[in-house]
Design goal:
CATH topology of the largest domain in chain A: BirA Bifunctional Protein, domain 2
Oligomer: homodimer
Largest interface: A-B, 64 and 64 residues
Radius of gyration of chain A: 26 Å
Largest sheet of chain A: 12 strands, mixed
Distance between the termini of chain A: 28 Å
Number of domains of chain A: 3
CATH superfamily of the largest domain in chain A: Bira Bifunctional Protein, Domain 2
Shape of chain A: globular
Structural class of chain A: alpha+beta
Chain lengths: 490, 490
């Protein structure tokens, strides 16, 4: 199996696509730019959803659901938003088909034309703030802390599975607050949740930062992000949290009565992560043998494969395997015992290795005699023979070790591929080779755009935790007060 | 609060709408026919989802995700399906907007017209079977047991919150099998899951039955359903499970190689329940005091309200209340302690009563002295004073009692409103008054349609558990072998 797919070295883009397809994560559908998320891929997404959903609820948020359709006129209400979003959208113009006059198939019924076209939501600020106008009258109605799990559509011309698709799945939080301070606090709280999720569950180190005005969400005052570095040296924006100020409250006339009986516009945030995280997860850890999954997000954490020649051997092995399975499940570990007789052990080894199952146990007749089990870990591909005694605790410990090791590996990779540069030549050279490039920038959009045109690199983040340091802009030589991160990006 | 909404007697339709709106379950959105599901309503839906999802997974199903869009031509491939579904659908014709020439807002960019229109899925058989063609080659690939949680759109002219909306949320299972028998077994297995969920979680008795050809799913060989009786005597179809035969496999050319090396078409099922269940839940149990929720689906199962005049009283009560809350939570019971000082106890009582919280505990200074707590149950509105000792077990037991009582009440209602009739006059009279009407039918669509035209009643189900009994058709007098259930329906 490992033979018929590309290595990272040969063709990184093809390697990524091969893993997504051949590990049964997703595939292209009959509809241009839209993917089918297959059961194995969807099981990973469900683990992501469950984890994030609990984090949101633990911090006081509730889920709700808003319409898929947005009236066209809603987009025009917030000037920056319409520029950023309304253009590349799926537009519903009719609500009926009829039999084709030639008797072949169906055609659009022109008499069933909508008075106002409906846009498939590319994001839901407009329809949600139109709704909040009725929910919010007084300070007693605030804060509103709502999240939605939904599908959205942005008409992309060049798509790639998970990373950029016309339809994708995501969560979008939309909160309303009585003060600016509280809204900013919410923005940062969510950014921390995203960073914690990325690092502790996805085992993917991220930089928390502010976006430059060019990269800001259309309609936001400030956009914060978590930014990760992929193995090809390109950056990937993994989540964003926006402080929207009063922009949407003003556009949709959402005011509240303060304790002092004054009418004021509400303060807002919005924030989201999407199935793009699946792409990040694949690219952050996988190797030339296939997918590598962090144990905390693996649908199957442990697979047990019996090695046998005769049916009576299988029976004896199965007894032991089922006991181990039960002991592991009692610890909350997800286990598959693959005793199918339609496939050989070698085929199964390759299959689970390719699909990134973190731990594989193999049990043969000799293991039964010796009270041992062979354990292979996916991250290092190391095999070791363990005594069967207390095996569930050993495996549990090993899963923790793997989770940690995967993170450390990704962290070291990022450290080794983060460079501070001081000259324009150095900058161009470094950006071309890939990695996070720390450089001074004069703070103007003009300069950022010129740098992008010349090098394809953009400012990925103005690090929140970065220390202030005086310097000169890499491009203009004008004064700068801090280093920002440049990179080419997905 | 109880004053400004309709009773069932006064105006049943208005009563239903008032409960949905005023209990914060859902509301109409700015988009015609589309609803906003509010946090409290969505929390109930999430409990439904979690329960059903576990039942599906426990029976070997996995979740996946397929595109929102379906190419128009796909619908024409299955003749019955296109008649049933493709007509009243949202049609995407363009993928871009542009600034309006008059500078006001945005208009559809006519140059961005799709070559083939895309339909927003009203159900996903076509796109899924187009996908399965690539997933299924041999008997080893079968069965495919996949479910999808998704939004769907059917362009409804007359909508009602939850019961009939243009966009709704649902799950749709789509399975593929190597034999007819296995597919039929799956169809029935899911019907049983739906019935168990309706009865044990929703506390709503249902009849399991087969649909007559007129009421069959467009593209199915057989449609099975669970059918419930609402308090106004109208029936509500709460879930359907379809045996699709080889119809979609033939339409999308999905064949598999048998063990005997022969190419054969695959057998299929599909099945779904939707947010319509929310409407059924409201109508099945609620009364003129508002929503009544079965404990197993209530987002808040127990609310604790402190009764006090002085802050030091509140402090003493809170200590006890927090202990009770903790003890209940440790038993997996969801509890809210409402110590807000912005609302009086009487207001809170009315609020939680209206929102259907199954159990309310009230604790005042005298209770502290006596070691007691006042417990009110929502279903019967009875209040009783309990000793505080072992309160968590008493409440747990009470929740079980309430769950059971709600079911029994609904079951008795259905029994009292199920009538066997033998003459056409009796039939017309009974159908007009409401309820399930058991009658003989000659088995022809012609007769069913005539009865519908004359009385608005349809065959809701041919009961699976009904005993065979010879008789004469209520309408034509022709021979009949079993009783079927007629009713007016939602």
């Amino acid at each position: 199996m490992a033979k018929d797919f590309s290595t990272r070295e040969e063709n990184y883009a093809q390697w990524y696509n091969d893993i997504v397809i051949k590990a049964d994560l997703a595939e292209n559908s009959a509809v241009r730019g839209c993917m089918v998320i297959k059961p194995y891929g969807y099981a990973i997404w469900e683990k992501m959803q469950a984890t994030l959903d609990k984090m949101f609820k633990d911090t006081g948020h509730s889920n709700a659901y808003f319409p898929l359709f947005i009236p066209k006129s809603f987009f025009s209400k917030e000037a920056a938003h319409v520029e950023g979003f309304a253009k590349e959208c799926a537009v519903v113009t009719h609500y009926r088909l009829k039999n084709s006059p030639d008797g072949k198939g169906v055609v659009v019924d022109e008499t069933a034309k909508l008075e106002e076209e409906l846009i498939i939501r590319p994001t839901s600020e407009t329809i949600i703030w139109d709704t909040y106008r009725n929910w919010i009258q007084s300070y007693r109605d605030l804060p509103v802390l709502v999240n939605q799990w939904a599908n959205v559509v942005r008409w992309e011309m060049r798509t790639r599975l998970f990373l950029r698709t016309t339809e994708f799945l995501w969560q979008e939080g939309h909160t309303a607050h009585s003060t600016k301070e509280e809204a900013i606090e919410e923005t940062m709280k969510i950014l921390d949740i995203y960073a914690t999720f990325a690092e502790e569950w996805m085992a993917m180190p991220v930089i928390k930062g502010l976006k430059s005005p060019n990269e800001r969400f259309a309609g936001a005052v400030d956009t914060y992000c978590i930014e990760a570095l992929m193995q090809d040296g390109k950056a990937l924006q993994a989540g964003t949290s926006h402080f929207l100020g009063q922009n949407f409250a003003k556009a949709f006339d959402v005011k509240y009565l303060t304790k002092e009986n004054k009418l004021e516009h509400v303060w807002a945030t919005s924030w989201g992560v999407s199935t793009r995280l699946m792409g990040a997860l694949v690219m952050a850890h996988s190797d030339d043998n296939g997918l590598v999954l962090p144990p905390k997000l693996a649908p199957i954490q442990v697979v047990i494969v019996p090695i046998y020649r005769k049916p009576e051997q299988l029976q004896a092995i199965s007894e032991v395997a089922e006991k181990i399975k039960k002991a592991l499940q009692d610890k909350g570990i997800s286990v598959k015992y693959d005793d199918r007789d339609t496939h050989k052990p070698g085929w199964k080894f390759a299959e689970y290795e390719f699909k990134g199952v973190p731990v594989r146990l193999a049990i043969g007749p000799r293991d039964l005699e010796n009270g041992t089990v062979e354990i292979a870990r996916r991250d290092t591909l190391e095999k070791e023979t363990y005594q069967m005694t207390d095996i569930e605790n050993k495996v549990e410990h090993l899963l923790d070790q793997i989770q940690d090791n995967i993170y450390q590996k990704a962290f070291s990779f990022r450290e080794e591929n983060t460079f501070k540069v001081d000259t324009w030549d150095e900058f161009k050279d470094r950006v071309e080779k890939g990695g996070f490039v720390l450089a001074h920038w004069d703070g103007t959009s003009e300069t950022e755009i010129k740098i992008k045109v010349e090098t394809k690199a953009t400012i990925r983040a103005i690090p929140i935790d970065g220390k202030k340091e005086a310097g000169k802009c890499i491009y203009t030589g004008n004064p700068s007060s801090e280093l920002v991160i440049f990179a080419k990006a997905y």
